[in-house]
Design a protein that fits this description.
Blueprint lengths: L28 H23 L3 H14 L4 H13 L3 H14 L4 H13 L3 H14 L4 H23 L23 H13 L2 H12 L4 H4 L6 H22 L21
Helix pairs in contact: 1-2, 1-3, 2-3, 3-4, 3-5, 4-5, 5-6, 5-7, 6-7, 6-11, 9-11
Length: about 270
Amino acid sequence: MNRPRFNIPLRNQKKTMSKPAKKRPKSSKPVVDEIEVACKNLRDEALKYMKVRNFNKALGLYDQALEMNTNDQSALVARSKCYLQLGEPAKALQDAETALLLDKTNIRAIYQKAEALYYLGQFEHSLMFFHRGLRLRPELASFRLGVQKTQEAIENTIGSNAKNQPPQKKAPKVDKPKSAKKSPLSKEELDKRAARRLLGDLYVDKEYLENLLKHPDLKKADTNTEGVSEFAKDAINFLNNRQEFWRQQKPCTSLNAKKLDGNNGALPRW
């Protein structure tokens, strides 16, 4: 007689259940790359409008690029230049300063800030930033031209103020006898001549900055955030270091230095 079979479950038997596989988080890098590509396309298109002087159209494209990435330094600098072309230097200055907050050595942002300050009439501050750019990239002629035009603007401003002052009487000239011998040059004059040989064209900048520090109205240009005096001292220290460097390369501290090497003491211009 066949007995029926019953399937009796074992107590210790564990049921195995397959767990669903965890989904890996998708990387955000492709999204970042897409944003960078889109911003670059907008900047390239805006540049085309800048070349044909359609600044309003270019400004709209730069705005779109910065809406996608507020830290796009290239777009900030380009929009700063666009604002200058549209006659809005205050907004140009704001974009340049934002770019410098992201990277204080951004040479294009330094140039744009100097230009914006120049068009705002803040010539002393503009001069300091042109000197800062010249110190970082001495081979760029744009910073040297910026220094020259800013110095001329300051001199014109000081000159116009001097015209309003009453004329001073000149002291009568005293004729010196022709037989009188020339007095020997002082140490200060010798140092000036040596510095002029060493620095070349840069000596004019150094002399201008030293005179600027002596100007009584300089304190008015200093602010709580940026002091013109500190920038001027920084630039003078830089020029003094360059002077010492060239002195070590080719001594010319005496008036007879022009006899060295048979080249009249000429120094390379840099």
